[in-house]
Description:
- By secondary structure, the protein is of the alpha/beta class.
- The chain contains 16 helices and 24 strands.
- It has an eight-stranded antiparallel sheet, covered by helices on one side. A six-stranded antiparallel sheet has the order 5-6-7-8-12-13, covered by helices on one side. The protein has a five-stranded parallel sheet with strand order 16-15-17-18-19, sandwiched between helices.
- The longest helix has 19 residues, at 413-431.
- The protein is globular, with a radius of gyration of 25 Å.
- The structure holds 6-O-phosphono-alpha-D-glucopyranose (G6P).
- 6-O-phosphono-alpha-D-glucopyranose binds at residues 291-294, 338-340, 343, 346, 389-391, 581, 583, 585.
Amino acid sequence: MCGIFGYVGKKTNAAEIVLAGLKRLEYRGYDSWGVAAVSKNKIFVKKKIGKIGSATVEDLPASTLALGHTRWATHGGVTDQNAHPHADCSGTIALIHNGIFENYEEYKVKLLKLGHRFTSDTDTEVIVHLIEEYAQSMPLTDAVEKAFKAMHGLNAIIVLSTKLDTFIAIRNGSPLVLGFSGGENFLASDPAALLPHTKTVYFLGDNEMAIVGSKTAKIRNIQTGKTVRAQKQTLTWDIHQAEKGNYRDFMSKEIHEQSGIIADIAASGTGLAQRIAAHIKKTPHLYLVGCGSASYAAIAGEYLFSKIAGRHANIAIGSEFGYHLDFLTRQSVVIAISQSGETMDILESVKKAKAKGAQIYALVNVLGSTLYREATEKILIGAGPEKSVASTKALTGMLSQLTLLAYALAGKPEEGTLVLTLAAKSVKTVLEKTQDSAIRKLAGKLKHVQHIYTIGRGLSYPAALEAAMKIKEISYIHAEGLAAGELKHGPLALVTRGTPCIAFLPDDETYGANLAGAMEMKARGGFVIGVSHKPHEVFDEYINVQDAGPATIIPNVVVAQLLAYYLTLARGLDPDMPRNLAKSVTVK
Ligand code: G6P
Protein backbone atom coordinates (compact mmCIF):
# COMPACT_ATOMS: atom_id res chain seq x y z
CA MET A 1 0.00 0.00 0.00
CA CYS A 2 1.32 3.41 -1.00
CA GLY A 3 3.85 3.60 -3.80
CA ILE A 4 7.31 4.99 -3.13
CA PHE A 5 9.89 5.94 -5.72
CA GLY A 6 13.18 7.80 -5.38
CA TYR A 7 15.98 8.80 -7.74
CA VAL A 8 19.49 10.11 -7.12
CA GLY A 9 22.00 10.43 -9.96
CA LYS A 10 23.45 12.54 -12.68
CA LYS A 11 20.29 13.26 -14.65
CA THR A 12 18.72 16.63 -13.91
CA ASN A 13 15.13 15.58 -14.54
CA ALA A 14 14.88 13.63 -11.27
CA ALA A 15 11.29 14.79 -10.65
CA GLU A 16 10.16 13.44 -14.03
CA ILE A 17 11.94 10.13 -13.45
CA VAL A 18 10.18 9.88 -10.11
CA LEU A 19 6.76 10.70 -11.58
CA ALA A 20 7.24 8.01 -14.25
CA GLY A 21 8.21 5.58 -11.46
CA LEU A 22 5.09 6.52 -9.49
CA LYS A 23 2.90 5.79 -12.51
CA ARG A 24 4.29 2.27 -12.53
CA LEU A 25 3.43 1.94 -8.85
CA GLU A 26 0.06 3.61 -8.85
CA TYR A 27 -1.75 0.30 -8.26
CA ARG A 28 -0.41 0.48 -4.70
CA GLY A 29 -2.60 3.49 -3.88
CA TYR A 30 -4.21 6.21 -5.93
CA ASP A 31 -5.98 8.61 -3.56
CA SER A 32 -3.30 11.23 -4.17
CA TRP A 33 0.28 11.64 -5.35
CA GLY A 34 3.23 13.92 -4.69
CA VAL A 35 6.83 14.59 -5.67
CA ALA A 36 9.62 16.47 -3.84
CA ALA A 37 12.84 17.58 -5.56
CA VAL A 38 15.95 19.22 -4.10
CA SER A 39 17.36 22.17 -6.02
CA LYS A 40 19.76 24.93 -4.97
CA ASN A 41 19.39 24.18 -1.27
CA LYS A 42 15.63 24.20 -1.39
CA ILE A 43 12.99 21.48 -1.45
CA PHE A 44 10.19 21.92 -3.98
CA VAL A 45 7.02 19.90 -3.48
CA LYS A 46 4.07 19.26 -5.78
CA LYS A 47 1.15 17.18 -4.53
CA LYS A 48 -2.39 16.59 -5.69
CA ILE A 49 -5.41 14.44 -4.94
CA GLY A 50 -6.62 11.87 -7.46
CA LYS A 51 -4.83 9.63 -9.94
CA ILE A 52 -1.73 10.95 -11.70
CA GLY A 53 -3.36 10.76 -15.14
CA SER A 54 -1.75 13.24 -17.49
CA ALA A 55 -0.28 15.43 -14.72
CA THR A 56 3.33 16.59 -15.12
CA VAL A 57 6.04 17.93 -12.85
CA GLU A 58 7.32 20.41 -15.43
CA ASP A 59 6.86 23.16 -12.86
CA LEU A 60 9.42 21.57 -10.52
CA PRO A 61 13.01 22.75 -11.02
CA ALA A 62 15.89 20.73 -12.49
CA SER A 63 17.19 18.37 -9.84
CA THR A 64 19.34 15.28 -9.43
CA LEU A 65 17.60 14.10 -6.25
CA ALA A 66 13.86 13.55 -5.92
CA LEU A 67 11.30 11.26 -4.34
CA GLY A 68 7.60 10.66 -4.68
CA HIS A 69 4.61 8.85 -3.23
CA THR A 70 1.17 7.59 -4.20
CA ARG A 71 -1.18 7.40 -1.26
CA TRP A 72 -3.78 4.95 0.02
CA ALA A 73 -5.25 7.03 2.82
CA THR A 74 -5.28 5.78 6.41
CA HIS A 75 -4.96 8.80 8.74
CA GLY A 76 -6.58 11.95 7.39
CA GLY A 77 -8.95 12.34 4.44
CA VAL A 78 -8.04 12.53 0.78
CA THR A 79 -6.87 16.16 0.46
CA ASP A 80 -3.93 17.94 -1.15
CA GLN A 81 -2.58 18.78 2.33
CA ASN A 82 -2.67 15.17 3.47
CA ALA A 83 -0.83 13.94 0.37
CA HIS A 84 2.88 13.07 0.78
CA PRO A 85 5.66 14.30 0.79
CA HIS A 86 5.37 16.18 4.07
CA ALA A 87 7.83 18.86 5.11
CA ASP A 88 9.06 20.14 8.49
CA CYS A 89 8.45 23.71 9.72
CA SER A 90 11.59 25.04 8.04
CA GLY A 91 10.86 23.32 4.72
CA THR A 92 14.36 21.83 4.65
CA ILE A 93 13.37 18.21 5.36
CA ALA A 94 10.78 16.25 3.34
CA LEU A 95 9.52 12.77 3.97
CA ILE A 96 7.37 10.02 2.47
CA HIS A 97 5.96 7.15 4.44
CA ASN A 98 4.26 3.79 4.00
CA GLY A 99 2.65 2.18 7.03
CA ILE A 100 1.02 3.47 10.20
CA PHE A 101 2.78 5.41 12.97
CA GLU A 102 0.58 3.85 15.64
CA ASN A 103 1.61 6.08 18.56
CA TYR A 104 1.72 9.36 16.58
CA GLU A 105 -0.76 11.18 18.83
CA GLU A 106 1.50 11.13 21.85
CA TYR A 107 4.31 12.77 19.81
CA LYS A 108 2.01 15.22 18.04
CA VAL A 109 0.89 16.63 21.40
CA LYS A 110 4.51 17.10 22.51
CA LEU A 111 5.59 18.65 19.20
CA LEU A 112 2.66 21.07 19.21
CA LYS A 113 3.71 22.19 22.70
CA LEU A 114 7.22 22.76 21.36
CA GLY A 115 5.79 25.08 18.71
CA HIS A 116 5.79 22.86 15.60
CA ARG A 117 3.18 23.88 13.04
CA PHE A 118 1.19 21.12 11.34
CA THR A 119 -0.54 21.49 8.00
CA SER A 120 -2.12 18.04 7.65
CA ASP A 121 -4.10 15.47 9.68
CA THR A 122 -1.69 12.64 8.95
CA ASP A 123 0.44 10.46 11.20
CA THR A 124 3.22 10.95 8.62
CA GLU A 125 3.68 14.67 9.21
CA VAL A 126 4.42 13.95 12.86
CA ILE A 127 7.51 11.95 11.79
CA VAL A 128 9.07 14.81 9.86
CA HIS A 129 8.56 17.26 12.74
CA LEU A 130 9.98 14.72 15.16
CA ILE A 131 13.08 14.42 12.97
CA GLU A 132 13.32 18.22 12.82
CA GLU A 133 13.14 18.36 16.61
CA TYR A 134 15.80 15.69 17.18
CA ALA A 135 18.05 17.17 14.47
CA GLN A 136 18.52 20.28 16.60
CA SER A 137 20.88 18.31 18.84
CA MET A 138 22.30 15.57 16.59
CA PRO A 139 23.22 14.81 12.97
CA LEU A 140 20.25 14.30 10.67
CA THR A 141 20.89 10.58 10.10
CA ASP A 142 20.86 10.00 13.88
CA ALA A 143 17.68 12.06 14.17
CA VAL A 144 15.99 9.95 11.49
CA GLU A 145 17.06 6.77 13.26
CA LYS A 146 15.86 8.03 16.64
CA ALA A 147 12.49 9.09 15.21
CA PHE A 148 12.04 5.74 13.47
CA LYS A 149 12.82 3.87 16.68
CA ALA A 150 10.15 5.91 18.47
CA MET A 151 7.52 4.75 16.00
CA HIS A 152 5.32 1.74 16.82
CA GLY A 153 3.93 -0.20 13.87
CA LEU A 154 5.22 -1.48 10.56
CA ASN A 155 6.66 1.34 8.51
CA ALA A 156 8.98 2.50 5.75
CA ILE A 157 10.17 6.10 5.44
CA ILE A 158 12.43 8.00 3.07
CA VAL A 159 13.84 11.37 4.01
CA LEU A 160 15.29 14.16 1.87
CA SER A 161 17.10 17.19 3.19
CA THR A 162 18.62 20.31 1.68
CA LYS A 163 21.76 19.48 3.67
CA LEU A 164 22.35 16.07 2.05
CA ASP A 165 22.86 14.75 -1.44
CA THR A 166 21.54 11.35 -0.36
CA PHE A 167 18.25 9.76 0.74
CA ILE A 168 17.90 8.26 4.15
CA ALA A 169 15.57 5.27 4.05
CA ILE A 170 14.52 2.86 6.79
CA ARG A 171 12.04 0.03 6.77
CA ASN A 172 10.41 -2.33 9.22
CA GLY A 173 7.64 -4.45 7.74
CA SER A 174 6.80 -2.25 4.76
CA PRO A 175 8.71 -3.14 1.58
CA LEU A 176 11.56 -1.08 0.09
CA VAL A 177 13.90 -2.18 -2.66
CA LEU A 178 17.08 -0.44 -3.83
CA GLY A 179 17.97 -0.42 -7.53
CA PHE A 180 21.57 0.07 -8.69
CA SER A 181 22.65 1.40 -12.05
CA GLY A 182 26.16 2.87 -12.55
CA GLY A 183 26.19 6.43 -11.22
CA GLU A 184 22.53 6.53 -10.30
CA ASN A 185 20.49 4.74 -7.68
CA PHE A 186 16.80 4.17 -7.10
CA LEU A 187 14.41 3.28 -4.33
CA ALA A 188 10.99 1.78 -4.82
CA SER A 189 8.32 -0.07 -2.92
CA ASP A 190 8.00 -2.67 -5.70
CA PRO A 191 10.77 -4.15 -7.87
CA ALA A 192 8.65 -4.03 -11.07
CA ALA A 193 8.92 -0.21 -11.00
CA LEU A 194 12.70 -0.46 -11.31
CA LEU A 195 12.71 -2.50 -14.53
CA PRO A 196 13.09 0.47 -16.94
CA HIS A 197 16.31 1.41 -15.10
CA THR A 198 17.92 -1.71 -13.68
CA LYS A 199 17.53 -5.36 -12.77
CA THR A 200 20.18 -5.24 -10.04
CA VAL A 201 18.41 -4.81 -6.74
CA TYR A 202 18.66 -5.22 -3.01
CA PHE A 203 15.57 -5.78 -0.86
CA LEU A 204 16.10 -3.87 2.39
CA GLY A 205 15.63 -6.08 5.43
CA ASP A 206 13.72 -5.12 8.57
CA ASN A 207 15.39 -2.36 10.59
CA GLU A 208 17.90 -1.64 7.86
CA MET A 209 18.73 1.98 7.20
CA ALA A 210 20.13 2.92 3.79
CA ILE A 211 21.93 6.15 3.00
CA VAL A 212 21.75 6.26 -0.75
CA GLY A 213 23.72 8.62 -2.96
CA SER A 214 24.38 8.52 -6.70
CA LYS A 215 27.42 6.28 -6.30
CA THR A 216 27.05 4.80 -2.85
CA ALA A 217 24.55 2.98 -0.73
CA LYS A 218 25.54 2.49 2.90
CA ILE A 219 23.33 0.09 4.79
CA ARG A 220 23.27 -0.46 8.54
CA ASN A 221 21.03 -2.44 10.86
CA ILE A 222 19.70 0.07 13.39
CA GLN A 223 19.04 -2.61 16.01
CA THR A 224 22.50 -4.19 15.97
CA GLY A 225 24.39 -1.13 14.71
CA LYS A 226 26.22 -3.41 12.26
CA THR A 227 27.01 -2.52 8.65
CA VAL A 228 25.13 -4.68 6.15
CA ARG A 229 26.76 -5.88 2.93
CA ALA A 230 24.01 -5.70 0.31
CA GLN A 231 23.56 -9.12 -1.30
CA LYS A 232 22.39 -7.88 -4.68
CA GLN A 233 19.87 -9.90 -6.68
CA THR A 234 19.04 -9.88 -10.36
CA LEU A 235 15.38 -9.52 -11.26
CA THR A 236 14.17 -12.23 -13.63
CA TRP A 237 11.27 -10.19 -15.00
CA ASP A 238 11.44 -8.40 -18.28
CA ILE A 239 10.39 -4.77 -18.77
CA HIS A 240 7.80 -5.76 -21.42
CA GLN A 241 6.06 -7.97 -18.91
CA ALA A 242 5.38 -4.89 -16.80
CA GLU A 243 3.93 -2.84 -19.65
CA LYS A 244 0.46 -2.67 -21.13
CA GLY A 245 1.62 -3.11 -24.72
CA ASN A 246 -1.34 -2.93 -27.09
CA TYR A 247 -3.90 -3.75 -24.44
CA ARG A 248 -6.46 -1.24 -23.22
CA ASP A 249 -5.53 -1.85 -19.60
CA PHE A 250 -3.46 -4.17 -17.44
CA MET A 251 -6.41 -6.33 -16.47
CA SER A 252 -7.17 -7.39 -20.06
CA LYS A 253 -3.46 -7.95 -20.70
CA GLU A 254 -3.13 -10.10 -17.60
CA ILE A 255 -6.30 -12.07 -18.38
CA HIS A 256 -5.00 -12.85 -21.86
CA GLU A 257 -1.56 -13.93 -20.66
CA GLN A 258 -3.05 -16.79 -18.67
CA SER A 259 -3.12 -19.70 -21.10
CA GLY A 260 0.58 -19.10 -21.86
CA ILE A 261 1.48 -18.88 -18.17
CA ILE A 262 -0.39 -22.09 -17.30
CA ALA A 263 1.22 -23.90 -20.24
CA ASP A 264 4.64 -22.67 -19.05
CA ILE A 265 3.96 -23.91 -15.52
CA ALA A 266 2.91 -27.27 -16.97
CA ALA A 267 6.11 -27.40 -19.01
CA SER A 268 8.35 -26.32 -16.14
CA GLY A 269 8.71 -29.86 -14.80
CA THR A 270 7.62 -31.46 -11.57
CA GLY A 271 10.95 -31.68 -9.74
CA LEU A 272 10.20 -28.92 -7.24
CA ALA A 273 6.62 -30.12 -6.66
CA GLN A 274 7.92 -33.62 -5.93
CA ARG A 275 10.57 -32.37 -3.52
CA ILE A 276 8.06 -30.24 -1.62
CA ALA A 277 5.48 -33.04 -1.67
CA ALA A 278 8.04 -35.33 -0.03
CA HIS A 279 8.37 -32.85 2.87
CA ILE A 280 4.63 -32.30 3.13
CA LYS A 281 4.00 -36.03 3.39
CA LYS A 282 5.89 -36.09 6.68
CA THR A 283 3.96 -33.30 8.41
CA PRO A 284 1.03 -34.18 10.65
CA HIS A 285 -0.52 -30.69 10.22
CA LEU A 286 -0.64 -28.89 6.93
CA TYR A 287 -2.07 -25.37 6.64
CA LEU A 288 -2.88 -23.31 3.57
CA VAL A 289 -3.17 -19.58 4.25
CA GLY A 290 -3.95 -16.63 1.96
CA CYS A 291 -5.89 -13.36 1.67
CA GLY A 292 -8.40 -12.27 -0.96
CA SER A 293 -8.05 -14.32 -4.13
CA ALA A 294 -5.15 -16.21 -2.56
CA SER A 295 -7.54 -17.40 0.19
CA TYR A 296 -9.72 -18.92 -2.54
CA ALA A 297 -6.61 -20.61 -3.91
CA ALA A 298 -6.14 -22.03 -0.40
CA ILE A 299 -9.71 -23.40 -0.37
CA ALA A 300 -9.17 -24.89 -3.83
CA GLY A 301 -5.88 -26.35 -2.59
CA GLU A 302 -7.70 -28.10 0.24
CA TYR A 303 -10.07 -29.75 -2.26
CA LEU A 304 -7.25 -30.60 -4.70
CA PHE A 305 -5.08 -32.17 -2.02
CA SER A 306 -7.90 -34.26 -0.61
CA LYS A 307 -9.47 -35.22 -3.94
CA ILE A 308 -6.27 -36.07 -5.78
CA ALA A 309 -3.92 -37.15 -3.01
CA GLY A 310 -6.21 -38.04 -0.10
CA ARG A 311 -4.27 -35.51 1.98
CA HIS A 312 -5.99 -33.25 4.49
CA ALA A 313 -5.03 -29.58 4.75
CA ASN A 314 -6.40 -26.94 7.12
CA ILE A 315 -7.27 -23.63 5.55
CA ALA A 316 -7.29 -20.13 7.00
CA ILE A 317 -7.69 -16.56 5.86
CA GLY A 318 -4.51 -14.59 6.65
CA SER A 319 -6.19 -12.19 9.08
CA GLU A 320 -7.92 -15.10 10.90
CA PHE A 321 -4.92 -17.39 11.15
CA GLY A 322 -3.94 -15.93 14.53
CA TYR A 323 -7.02 -17.68 16.00
CA HIS A 324 -5.96 -21.11 14.69
CA LEU A 325 -2.57 -21.30 16.32
CA ASP A 326 -3.27 -23.64 19.22
CA PHE A 327 -2.55 -26.77 17.24
CA LEU A 328 0.63 -25.57 15.53
CA THR A 329 3.79 -27.42 16.49
CA ARG A 330 7.34 -27.74 15.20
CA GLN A 331 6.10 -30.46 12.85
CA SER A 332 3.47 -28.22 11.23
CA VAL A 333 3.91 -26.88 7.71
CA VAL A 334 2.22 -23.63 6.70
CA ILE A 335 1.97 -22.93 2.97
CA ALA A 336 1.55 -19.16 2.77
CA ILE A 337 0.06 -18.13 -0.57
CA SER A 338 0.52 -14.58 -1.86
CA GLN A 339 1.03 -12.82 -5.15
CA SER A 340 3.00 -9.90 -3.73
CA GLY A 341 4.62 -11.63 -0.78
CA GLU A 342 4.06 -8.37 1.11
CA THR A 343 0.47 -8.65 2.37
CA MET A 344 0.65 -7.72 6.03
CA ASP A 345 -2.03 -10.20 7.15
CA ILE A 346 0.03 -13.01 5.62
CA LEU A 347 3.32 -11.80 7.02
CA GLU A 348 1.74 -11.56 10.48
CA SER A 349 0.43 -15.14 10.14
CA VAL A 350 3.88 -16.31 9.18
CA LYS A 351 5.44 -14.53 12.15
CA LYS A 352 2.98 -16.17 14.55
CA ALA A 353 3.44 -19.61 12.97
CA LYS A 354 7.22 -19.26 13.16
CA ALA A 355 6.98 -18.35 16.82
CA LYS A 356 5.27 -21.72 17.35
CA GLY A 357 8.14 -23.40 15.51
CA ALA A 358 6.15 -24.23 12.35
CA GLN A 359 7.88 -24.38 8.99
CA ILE A 360 6.91 -21.83 6.37
CA TYR A 361 6.62 -22.67 2.69
CA ALA A 362 5.84 -19.81 0.34
CA LEU A 363 3.78 -19.96 -2.85
CA VAL A 364 4.62 -16.48 -4.03
CA ASN A 365 4.94 -14.47 -7.25
CA VAL A 366 7.59 -11.92 -6.30
CA LEU A 367 11.17 -13.12 -6.01
CA GLY A 368 12.91 -11.47 -3.06
CA SER A 369 9.68 -10.30 -1.41
CA THR A 370 9.41 -10.47 2.37
CA LEU A 371 7.43 -13.72 2.31
CA TYR A 372 9.91 -15.22 -0.15
CA ARG A 373 12.74 -14.41 2.23
CA GLU A 374 10.92 -15.63 5.35
CA ALA A 375 10.15 -19.08 3.90
CA THR A 376 12.31 -22.18 4.09
CA GLU A 377 10.82 -23.63 0.91
CA LYS A 378 9.71 -21.40 -1.95
CA ILE A 379 7.59 -22.03 -5.02
CA LEU A 380 7.61 -19.07 -7.39
CA ILE A 381 4.21 -18.80 -9.05
CA GLY A 382 5.77 -17.67 -12.33
CA ALA A 383 2.97 -15.35 -13.46
CA GLY A 384 5.23 -12.33 -14.14
CA PRO A 385 4.44 -8.88 -12.74
CA GLU A 386 0.75 -8.38 -11.99
CA LYS A 387 -0.35 -4.75 -12.00
CA SER A 388 -4.12 -4.74 -12.10
CA VAL A 389 -5.41 -4.40 -8.53
CA ALA A 390 -7.80 -7.31 -9.05
CA SER A 391 -5.72 -10.46 -9.19
CA THR A 392 -6.12 -12.63 -12.31
CA LYS A 393 -3.05 -14.44 -13.61
CA ALA A 394 -1.50 -14.75 -10.16
CA LEU A 395 -4.56 -16.67 -8.94
CA THR A 396 -4.65 -19.06 -11.90
CA GLY A 397 -0.88 -19.45 -11.44
CA MET A 398 -1.44 -20.37 -7.77
CA LEU A 399 -4.13 -22.87 -8.78
CA SER A 400 -1.78 -24.38 -11.38
CA GLN A 401 1.05 -24.81 -8.88
CA LEU A 402 -1.32 -26.32 -6.29
CA THR A 403 -2.59 -28.77 -8.93
CA LEU A 404 1.00 -29.89 -9.68
CA LEU A 405 1.66 -30.22 -5.96
CA ALA A 406 -1.51 -32.29 -5.40
CA TYR A 407 -0.54 -34.74 -8.15
CA ALA A 408 3.03 -34.90 -6.84
CA LEU A 409 1.60 -35.72 -3.40
CA ALA A 410 -0.45 -38.48 -4.99
CA GLY A 411 2.73 -39.86 -6.60
CA LYS A 412 1.40 -39.09 -10.10
CA PRO A 413 3.34 -36.00 -11.17
CA GLU A 414 2.96 -36.62 -14.93
CA GLU A 415 -0.81 -36.63 -14.57
CA GLY A 416 -0.54 -33.14 -13.05
CA THR A 417 1.32 -31.91 -16.13
CA LEU A 418 -1.32 -33.45 -18.37
CA VAL A 419 -4.25 -31.93 -16.52
CA LEU A 420 -2.60 -28.50 -16.52
CA THR A 421 -1.95 -28.71 -20.25
CA LEU A 422 -5.67 -29.35 -20.70
CA ALA A 423 -6.46 -26.37 -18.47
CA ALA A 424 -4.18 -24.10 -20.54
CA LYS A 425 -6.03 -25.21 -23.71
CA SER A 426 -9.42 -24.71 -22.12
CA VAL A 427 -8.43 -21.18 -20.99
CA LYS A 428 -7.30 -20.44 -24.54
CA THR A 429 -10.73 -21.41 -25.85
CA VAL A 430 -12.47 -19.18 -23.29
CA LEU A 431 -10.35 -16.28 -24.47
CA GLU A 432 -11.08 -16.87 -28.16
CA LYS A 433 -13.23 -14.39 -30.02
CA THR A 434 -16.56 -16.24 -29.97
CA GLN A 435 -16.52 -16.95 -26.25
CA ASP A 436 -15.13 -13.52 -25.48
CA SER A 437 -17.91 -11.77 -27.38
CA ALA A 438 -20.58 -14.03 -25.83
CA ILE A 439 -19.34 -13.00 -22.37
CA ARG A 440 -19.19 -9.34 -23.42
CA LYS A 441 -22.79 -9.55 -24.65
CA LEU A 442 -23.88 -11.14 -21.41
CA ALA A 443 -22.20 -8.31 -19.49
CA GLY A 444 -24.25 -5.85 -21.56
CA LYS A 445 -27.44 -7.60 -20.39
CA LEU A 446 -26.39 -7.62 -16.74
CA LYS A 447 -24.82 -4.19 -16.41
CA HIS A 448 -27.78 -2.62 -14.59
CA VAL A 449 -28.54 -5.42 -12.13
CA GLN A 450 -28.17 -4.78 -8.39
CA HIS A 451 -27.14 -8.25 -7.25
CA ILE A 452 -25.53 -11.33 -8.75
CA TYR A 453 -25.29 -14.72 -7.05
CA THR A 454 -22.62 -17.25 -7.96
CA ILE A 455 -22.84 -20.89 -6.90
CA GLY A 456 -20.68 -23.99 -6.96
CA ARG A 457 -19.79 -27.07 -4.97
CA GLY A 458 -16.47 -28.76 -4.32
CA LEU A 459 -13.79 -27.10 -6.45
CA SER A 460 -16.42 -24.82 -7.96
CA TYR A 461 -17.15 -23.32 -4.54
CA PRO A 462 -13.88 -21.31 -4.50
CA ALA A 463 -14.59 -20.52 -8.19
CA ALA A 464 -17.95 -19.05 -7.10
CA LEU A 465 -16.27 -17.05 -4.32
CA GLU A 466 -13.69 -15.68 -6.74
CA ALA A 467 -16.35 -14.83 -9.34
CA ALA A 468 -18.30 -12.81 -6.77
CA MET A 469 -15.15 -11.07 -5.55
CA LYS A 470 -14.07 -10.08 -9.09
CA ILE A 471 -17.54 -8.75 -9.92
CA LYS A 472 -17.93 -6.66 -6.79
CA GLU A 473 -14.40 -5.26 -6.60
CA ILE A 474 -14.26 -3.82 -10.10
CA SER A 475 -17.86 -3.42 -11.35
CA TYR A 476 -19.27 -2.40 -7.92
CA ILE A 477 -22.28 -4.68 -8.43
CA HIS A 478 -23.09 -6.53 -5.25
CA ALA A 479 -22.23 -10.19 -5.77
CA GLU A 480 -22.30 -13.13 -3.39
CA GLY A 481 -20.50 -16.44 -3.84
CA LEU A 482 -22.18 -19.44 -2.27
CA ALA A 483 -21.79 -23.16 -1.82
CA ALA A 484 -24.81 -24.22 -3.89
CA GLY A 485 -26.20 -26.26 -1.00
CA GLU A 486 -26.44 -23.14 1.14
CA LEU A 487 -28.99 -21.44 -1.13
CA LYS A 488 -31.89 -23.05 0.65
CA HIS A 489 -30.50 -22.05 4.05
CA GLY A 490 -31.11 -18.34 3.54
CA PRO A 491 -30.07 -16.65 0.30
CA LEU A 492 -33.06 -17.98 -1.68
CA ALA A 493 -35.19 -15.47 0.21
CA LEU A 494 -33.57 -12.75 -1.90
CA VAL A 495 -34.33 -14.32 -5.27
CA THR A 496 -37.02 -12.59 -7.28
CA ARG A 497 -37.89 -12.46 -10.96
CA GLY A 498 -34.73 -11.96 -13.01
CA THR A 499 -32.15 -12.30 -10.18
CA PRO A 500 -28.97 -13.42 -11.99
CA CYS A 501 -27.26 -16.57 -10.78
CA ILE A 502 -24.02 -17.88 -12.25
CA ALA A 503 -23.75 -21.63 -11.72
CA PHE A 504 -20.44 -23.45 -12.20
CA LEU A 505 -21.18 -26.98 -13.38
CA PRO A 506 -18.02 -28.85 -14.36
CA ASP A 507 -18.05 -32.51 -15.35
CA ASP A 508 -17.35 -33.88 -11.89
CA GLU A 509 -19.18 -35.43 -8.94
CA THR A 510 -20.83 -32.09 -8.10
CA TYR A 511 -22.71 -31.77 -11.41
CA GLY A 512 -26.10 -33.11 -10.33
CA ALA A 513 -26.22 -31.34 -6.97
CA ASN A 514 -25.07 -28.08 -8.54
CA LEU A 515 -27.75 -28.35 -11.16
CA ALA A 516 -30.29 -28.76 -8.37
CA GLY A 517 -29.11 -25.41 -6.97
CA ALA A 518 -29.53 -23.76 -10.37
CA MET A 519 -33.04 -25.21 -10.59
CA GLU A 520 -33.94 -23.91 -7.14
CA MET A 521 -32.97 -20.44 -8.37
CA LYS A 522 -34.88 -20.86 -11.62
CA ALA A 523 -38.04 -22.05 -9.85
CA ARG A 524 -38.12 -18.72 -8.00
CA GLY A 525 -37.68 -16.60 -11.11
CA GLY A 526 -33.86 -16.55 -11.18
CA PHE A 527 -31.96 -15.88 -14.42
CA VAL A 528 -29.52 -18.78 -14.64
CA ILE A 529 -26.15 -18.49 -16.37
CA GLY A 530 -24.59 -21.94 -16.69
CA VAL A 531 -20.81 -22.26 -16.96
CA SER A 532 -20.33 -25.84 -17.99
CA HIS A 533 -18.99 -28.37 -20.50
CA LYS A 534 -22.51 -28.93 -21.91
CA PRO A 535 -25.72 -26.92 -22.26
CA HIS A 536 -28.84 -27.61 -20.18
CA GLU A 537 -32.44 -26.46 -20.55
CA VAL A 538 -32.37 -24.76 -17.16
CA PHE A 539 -29.77 -22.27 -18.40
CA ASP A 540 -31.02 -18.89 -19.65
CA GLU A 541 -27.48 -18.21 -20.81
CA TYR A 542 -24.72 -20.73 -21.41
CA ILE A 543 -20.94 -20.31 -21.40
CA ASN A 544 -19.03 -23.34 -22.63
CA VAL A 545 -15.93 -24.43 -20.73
CA GLN A 546 -13.97 -27.42 -21.97
CA ASP A 547 -13.34 -29.97 -19.28
CA ALA A 548 -9.85 -30.11 -17.75
CA GLY A 549 -10.51 -32.58 -14.94
CA PRO A 550 -9.87 -31.16 -11.45
CA ALA A 551 -8.15 -28.14 -13.08
CA THR A 552 -11.43 -26.99 -14.65
CA ILE A 553 -11.60 -24.46 -11.84
CA ILE A 554 -8.93 -22.54 -13.80
CA PRO A 555 -10.95 -21.85 -17.00
CA ASN A 556 -14.04 -21.31 -14.83
CA VAL A 557 -12.23 -18.54 -12.98
CA VAL A 558 -11.19 -17.02 -16.31
CA VAL A 559 -14.85 -16.86 -17.42
CA ALA A 560 -15.61 -14.98 -14.20
CA GLN A 561 -12.71 -12.58 -14.77
CA LEU A 562 -13.90 -11.76 -18.28
CA LEU A 563 -17.48 -11.23 -17.15
CA ALA A 564 -16.38 -8.92 -14.31
CA TYR A 565 -14.11 -7.07 -16.73
CA TYR A 566 -16.82 -6.48 -19.33
CA LEU A 567 -19.36 -5.50 -16.67
CA THR A 568 -16.86 -2.89 -15.50
CA LEU A 569 -16.30 -1.49 -18.99
CA ALA A 570 -20.07 -1.49 -19.66
CA ARG A 571 -20.54 0.60 -16.52
CA GLY A 572 -17.84 3.05 -17.60
CA LEU A 573 -15.44 2.19 -14.77
CA ASP A 574 -11.67 1.69 -14.55
CA PRO A 575 -10.90 -2.06 -14.16
CA ASP A 576 -7.27 -1.51 -13.11
CA MET A 577 -7.82 0.82 -10.19
CA PRO A 578 -11.12 0.19 -8.39
CA ARG A 579 -12.20 2.73 -5.78
CA ASN A 580 -10.97 2.40 -2.19
CA LEU A 581 -8.69 -0.56 -2.94
CA ALA A 582 -4.97 -1.07 -3.52
CA LYS A 583 -2.93 -3.97 -4.78
CA SER A 584 -0.41 -4.62 -2.09
CA VAL A 585 -2.09 -4.46 1.29
CA THR A 586 0.72 -3.69 3.71
CA VAL A 587 -1.41 -2.56 6.66
CA LYS A 588 -3.31 -4.78 9.12
C1 G6P B 1 -5.46 -7.27 -2.37
C2 G6P B 1 -5.67 -7.42 -3.86
C3 G6P B 1 -6.25 -8.79 -4.16
C4 G6P B 1 -5.36 -9.87 -3.59
C5 G6P B 1 -5.12 -9.68 -2.09
C6 G6P B 1 -4.03 -10.59 -1.56
O1 G6P B 1 -6.68 -7.20 -1.70
O2 G6P B 1 -6.52 -6.41 -4.35
O3 G6P B 1 -6.35 -8.94 -5.56
O4 G6P B 1 -5.95 -11.12 -3.82
O5 G6P B 1 -4.68 -8.35 -1.85
O6 G6P B 1 -2.79 -10.20 -2.10
P1 G6P B 1 -1.52 -11.11 -2.22
O7 G6P B 1 -0.47 -10.23 -2.83
O8 G6P B 1 -1.15 -11.52 -0.81
O9 G6P B 1 -1.87 -12.29 -3.05
